[in-house]
Amino acid sequence: MKLTLSISKKECDLIHEQSLKLLQTMGITIFSKEALEVFKKAGARVQENQVFIDADLVEESLKMVPHAFPIYSNTKRVVVGKGKLCSLPPYGGTYVSRNEHIALGTRNDYLNFTKLNQLNEYISMACPYTLEPFDIPLEQRNIYRMAMILKYSDKPSLSIVGSREESRKCIEMVRRYYGITNKPVVLGNVNVSAPMIMGLSTTEAITVHCEENQPLMIACGSGLSGLTAPPTPGGNFLLANAGILAGIVFAQIQSPGLPIIYGLPLFGVDPFKAETSVGSPATALFTLAAKGMAEYYQIPFRAGGTFTDSKYLDYQSGFESGINLLSCLLAEVDCLMHSFGMEDALKTINYNKYVLDEYMYLSLKDFVKGMEINDVTIMTDEILKVGSTGNYISSRNLKLIRKQYPKHGFGEGKTKAEVLKKTDDEINRRLNNYEFPAPTKDQIKILRGYLPDEYID
Q1: In degrees, to the nearest 5, what angle opens at C-alpha 245 toward C-alphas 241 and 247?
Q2: What is the pLDDT of residues 173-198, one digit of tens each?
Q3: Residues of 267-285 as b/e, b for ≥16 C-beta within 10 angstroms?
Q4: Rounded to an integer, what distance in angstroms lies between the CA atom of residue 336 and that of residue 302?
Q5: Does the pLDDT at position 313 exceed 80?
Q6: In what order do the strands lie in the sheet with 45-47?
Q7: What pLDDT is stored for residue 109 in this prediction?
Q8: How many CA atoms are closer than 13 Å to the CA of 127, on its beta-carbon side?
Q9: Which of 2, 114, 276, 394 has the highest local Cβ count within 10 Å?
Q10: Domain 1-457 class?
């Protein structure tokens, strides 16, 4: 018994065919002269800032994308694809919440979550965009974040995807720190904007990752139905898919065979406020749709996380996070974004929720795994042996029950204050137990070449 959900082959055919139509007749707006020239040399029709991509170029580009690929640090290797789940940390937080106190993120919070992600066996990679450390000057912030990932984590990491210079400097620093020159060491996450725009920083980040042979997640997740996307979820989905295909073509033209992850972080919309609603059921449905298209194209895909619009640990928070995380597991995502701790429409990372989401993840994994029904597990012989008036009390059965019915979390009947205290104690326990080898003198020297001493925590 295995639970899984997606969209149909017929629906995938329709989305793909109409995406090709959009790319060929409407095209995509691009603001980089270099990117326009790249498309033009590849045979795309270019008129001012508009690029029109024919079906053959799209199809040939898709054929070149690998079905799976590895990413390396100096001690670890993570595989994306091949049925393996690559889970990623929280991403994009502005605020942090702990025990219902909310504040802007600081460098101390950034280091805490870098360490928590390193310690967490259910998180595969590190992430420099976990949150904004506002007490680090803006001009130093991106390099600081990447440097602290290197110093406090040995998991492969997402990259910095800023300007051409920032993107290249990030890749260079990681390679030097690890002593790796010929393997993928970071994963870039770029976004094609809705309706159909590829901004300058996006084209520059894609180009740098292509030149440095580093894999990319290409997403188009900014469509808001009724504003930057059509009012129906299907129209939003079509527009996003076309944008992703344009990004894939741009990358494959420059670096044939570059590993790429299909990204569809689309959200619902609040129809009365014209705002994104990440906790909407539509968000979970978009995740399941992404599975269908990724399988259709036979490339890895990313989606979802513990999304909620709630600002607090309440009924809404648990329900919305649960349905979104469940959709990711049902869809068997290759890359699970925003794994634990997100709240308030991705504005906040909540320390307490980080722990609670981890327990929810384990419970939902058990649920999606389903139950085994076979000659052994139905235990006919045991039933006949016990008879109609016996019982199944034994130490052997107790062990079997605990294996078959795993329990995650703090138990039932806890007050909110008790839950906050227990999760806070768990966060403190993990941080107090954090141990990591100190950087070598050469590694510290490398960091000092990019960052002033005052910011090397």
Answers
A1: 120
A2: 999 999 999 999 999 999 999 899 99
A3: bbbeeeeeebbbbbebbbb
A4: 6
A5: yes
A6: 45-47, 50-52, 28-30, 197-198
A7: 98
A8: 25
A9: 114
A10: alpha beta
